[in-house]
Amino acid sequence: MISIRKKLGASFITTSILTIIFIIIVVNVVINIQFKKYMNEVQEKRYNSVVTYFEEIYKKEKNFSIDSGNELIHEAFMNNYCLTLMDSNKNIIWGMNPDNLVEDFSFNNMHKEEKGVFTSKIFNIKYDNEIVGYIEIGQYSSILLTEEDTAFITSINKSIIISTLLTICIVILISIYLSKQFSKPISEVSKISAQLSQGNFNIKFNGNTKIREMDKLKASINTLSEKLNNQDLLRRQLVSDISHEIRTPLNVLQNNLEAMIDGVFPITVDRLMKLNSEVIRFGNLLENLDVLKDFESKNYMLSIRKVNLEEVILDIYKEFLLEAHNKNIALTCEIDKNNNYIINGDKDKLRQVFINIINNSIKFNRVNGEVNICLMKEGKRIIIIIKDSGIGISQKDLPYIFERLYRVDKSRNCVEGSGIGLTIVKSILKGHNADIFVESEVGKGSVFKIIF
Ligand code: ADP
């Protein structure tokens, strides 16, 4: 298969050479036509001057003799034309032999194709408006070219050929350069995509290109490799998270059961209850994975009805008041009562969204912290802001908090959680065509903004 560089180069070169050849043909034809026109005019002038010359002679001599005007013979001979002087009855007074021209040096220097059949023209010689004789001018070509004329036309043709060859060389060089410019980023992209397909996601397109589309292609391929790299990291993390989450309760169970079998630990109701709680934790984890699977499956259905978000938010706010109070957290709710907040949506799923976010705001908060829920409208858009003064999320973790089973390291060890709450939030909001944005600062708190 031919490479893009060769293909582009060949197309550039072919198009340019065809264009050059076309221009050269047009230029050549135009020059030849103009030159012939000019030579015709010169020839007409010569005919007129020969006729005038003989008319002047007649004016002086009132007759034509064998010597009349024969001083022109030499010039005619040198310029490859034949003269024959005739009286008023067309009797030849004197004439040149056309065969002598063929022997001549300057005739042989003429353009080959110009040496044609001998043709002649007869012109009247007039005196006092009466024909007093005839002069016949004959030549071997339609237009007579002097040596200088031939040299001129040859030099023009030569310079056309030289400039054509030069232009073709320049065109070839420019085509090679341009095809390299175009093909380089494309072949780079193809190399990078081959690397990506082999699972090497840590690769970047660094080359510089001044073409807008190429620049976009470069940006997209870099984003793609970055995303694939992140997905790969998340996948690895997911596997390690699941195995970590499963191993912990299993280890606890195994160690305790072994100790009981060996008689190290007495079998008490209290100990059995603790082991049971580990089994429950394990079961919860599997349940969470099941929930996640359902939410991520394509056939998860929303039952869409009219939902009043004001009611939903107020209900949830009231439900969380006790828990917030128990944790010494000030939970507040602001609703701009001048608007209505009715949307088409799945009430239960939307409740799940707000519960998950508010639950996190309380869970990842500090003692005497604050959580504020705000419901408002901006134009046609309904906005819900949940702001807390909790531990915050680092910029490094922020892009991943909506990913499956992602838990910020700090929260993993000290706070209960599964890492799927926000994944579910994102999935439900996507089903409602709503957006969610997060801003957060470690140690200061987080702001979750949902826009319907
Ligand atoms: P989890 O069950 O761990 O809460 P989520 O998907 O709800 O799972 O949240 C993912 C992670 O995002 C949490 O483990 C936590 O580290 C972080 N996070 C979510 N909400 C907040 C918040 N309001 N403040 C600080 N960290 C948060």
Topology record:
Layout: H1 4-61, H2 72-78, E1 81-87, E2 92-95, H3 98-103, H4 105-108, E3 119-127, E4 130-139, H5 147-197, H6 212-261, H7 269-296, E5 305-308, H8 309-326, E6 330-335, E7 342-345, H9 347-363, E8 370-378, E9 381-388, H10 409-414, H11 421-431, E10 435-441, E11 445-451
Parallel strand pairs: 6-8
Antiparallel strand pairs: 1-2, 1-4, 3-4, 5-7, 8-9, 9-11, 10-11
Helix pairs in contact: 1-5, 5-6, 6-7, 8-9, 9-11
Adenosine-5'-diphosphate binds at residues 356, 360-361, 364, 388, 390-393, 401, 406-408, 411, 417-423, 446.
Describe the 3D structure.
With 452 residues, the chain is an alpha+beta fold. It is built from eleven helices and eleven strands. It has helices at 4-61, 72-78, 98-103, 105-108, 147-197, 212-261, 269-296, 309-326, 347-363, 409-414, 421-431, and strands spanning 81-87, 92-95, 119-127, 130-139, 305-308, 330-335, 342-345, 370-378, 381-388, 435-441, 445-451. The strands form three sheets. A five-stranded mixed beta sheet has the order 6-8-9-11-10, with helices on one face. Strands 2-1-4-3 form a four-stranded antiparallel beta sheet, with helices on one face. The two termini are 52 Å apart. Bound molecules: adenosine-5'-diphosphate. Adenosine-5'-diphosphate binds at residues 356, 360-361, 364, 388, 390-393, 401, 406-408, 411, 417-423, 446.
